[in-house]
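Structure ticket #2291
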Amino acid sequence: MDISRSTIAALALSLAGPATLPDVASAQDAGAVARAYLDRIAALDDAGPQINAVITTNPDAPEQAAKAQAAGLPLNGRTVLVKDNIETKEWPTTAGSLALADNATGRDAPLIVRLRAAGGVVLGKTNLSEWANFRDDNSTSGWSGVGGLTRNPHATDRTACGSSSGSGAAVAAGFAWAAIGTETDGSIVCPASINGIVGFKPTVGMVSRTLVVPISVSQDTAGPMATSVYDAALLLTAISGSDPDDPATAEADAHKVDFTAGLAGASLKGVRIGVLRKRTGPRADVAALFDHALGDLRAAGAVLVDVDWEPNPDMNRDEFTVLLFEFREGVDAYLAGLPEQEEPRTLADLVMFNTDHADGELRWFGQALFELAQKATDREAYLAARANSQRLARAEGIDKLLADNDVAVLIAPTNNPAWTIDLVNGDHFTGGVGATGLAAVAGYPHLTVPMGAVEGLPIGLSIVGAKWHDAQVLQLGAAYERARTADLHTPEFKRWGE
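Resolution: structure written out below.
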């Protein structure tokens, strides 16, 4: 299809049209598509409803996209927005913090090197929950000192969830072909689900974490966020692989495949799927939506098996111990390795900076997690907590559930509907839904695919698989995507109920 520059620009500036723009694969001019995305960001992110998902954009993206397309590279000049805790050579990498506002390292993280080599174009940086939502236990998802507050394009007074809030909202709003988020526990799948898009947290170690601002060496991973399982798989293929500077990725090359292969023909027929019935939560409307998804799976030939599981509080307790200890060590090492930054160089420096710049950093919530992490120095207690939490999530968690019930994957709703943004009182999380923490602590693949909406607020279906079974999880997600009969909500760029 030949799409002219003016036609795409008109699409980009139209509030009445669909959220997403034409894929560059269907257009002759990748540069025009990139320009249309930039125009759409200007119209809807910087102005109009001000979704505020994108911190900065790349004015050279149209030229770079055209060049990548001409070279015949796999991503063909497709545009990707990158969460601002991942280093890119063009801009500072801030993690949303004013303390790192000038952190221009001039480096590309290895996953970004891979993205560019595959013909992907970095369109810009996305906002995030500051420090990936690991600064205070009463924070507001989607807010950072650098980027301000990101809004959900489906309901601008509702959360975009965190910490990859900007990446999720940007893809939902049609600001790029795809985005890259990061997750420690829920930070890809929650914003993906709540913004009505696909999000994939791969097996920890499938994607390099080098030059990504850390929280947890045990649980951190980057992953794709897109409008379809195919696009997420295509992006994962580009960015995954072993990195000698990240020991967790030692096996990645052995497990990396073309993740798009097999998606088109993937079938649910005869596939045994474990249904986490106790993780549907207290809401009847979410349960009804999940039941509809189960009906679609059953109609497509899946064999549904009820699986009895609820979170073990010991796993959650020990995970917190692990995160505090690993954050202190990880952030100290990251800050110490910055080539130009004079300060901060330690977590203690960050605490002092926030105290000295309280008007910009501490107006809405504090830094209790930073302060707790400073005290998390007991290595023996940390190692014991890590071993126990991983045992409960792996051998006695996902591995056991899959084996005992003879199922390929586990499914549940990803979350409840998006809650109202409240900067004064913080997030209004409601529990009892999903298996996000289980997959996060295990480090196993977790895919969320839209399964409909409650009162115009999207809900995702979570698919959790075994370690290194990323391709299988994506294939089953694509098969569900084709079998899905529920209507999906289109972003309206206005407050809920208006």
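Closing remark: Residues 1-19 have pLDDT under 50 and may be disordered.
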